Structure formats: structure tokens, C-alpha cells
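During the reporting period the student researcher (J.K.) took over the structure-prediction task from the postdoctoral fellow and processed the backlog of single-chain submissions. One of the processed entries is reproduced below for the supervisory committee.
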Amino acid sequence: MTAAIRAATLALACTGLLGGCLRDLDPRLGERHTVPGGKPKEGPAAIRAYGCGSCHVIPGVRGARGLTAPPLAAWSGRRFIAGRVPNTPHELVSWIIHPQGIKPGTAMPDLGVTDQDARHIAAYLYTLKE
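J.K. obtained the following C-alpha cells:
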């Protein structure tokens, strides 16, 4: 194998790895935000039940006008959760269920959200585009 072929092979391998990493961080690059078991239509009811709107502005959820935490508009375009966790379906569901376990001391409390309700909430949030 010549040096040129080895260099080209290495460049292709790096491009593939980089593409995979970017896809994990930026949904616009390929990976959809599909939440297994999550029903977006059930998300707003779960959001209201847990009182998420008392802290967040959440488009499409009646009464969700809180100003304590960041607004959740355009959620599907965000790269990170809490500024440091990649915005993937698995991480978002985990965050909704147990934010204190992921980022101890965060202002977001553990609300006792069930796994199923967290999936519905996450599925709904991923419908929020710009």
C-alpha cells in the first residue's frame, strides 16, 4: 500500500468518524429525534400534569409561561441539555426523569416523572422546531 493510498484511507476513516459524532450532536445532520414509546400528542398533558410550564415557556402547552427556566421553543434544534449533555432521545428522557442525577445542583427538580410520561414529553419537545 502506498503512502498516498494510506493517507486517503485514513482521511476517509476520519471523515466517517467525524460524521458519526456530528450526527449525534446535530439532528439536522441525519439522526432524527425519535423517542421509542413516546407519543407527541400525549406530551402536553404530561407537561401540564408535572407543572413544567411553571418554570418554562413551552409553545403549544396551555399555561406554560414560566420565566424561571429557559424557554423550550425550537427544542429539536438544540445541541445540548443543561449546557453539557448531548441532546439525544435517551439523554433527554433520562434528564426529564432525574435531572439531579445528571447535573447535581441544577435548578430543575426531580418531579417523579415516570419513564412513559418522560417519553411522551420528550417526543413532544422534539416536535418543537424554529
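The committee noted the following: The beta strands are 80-81, 85-86.
J.K. will present the remaining backlog at the next meeting.
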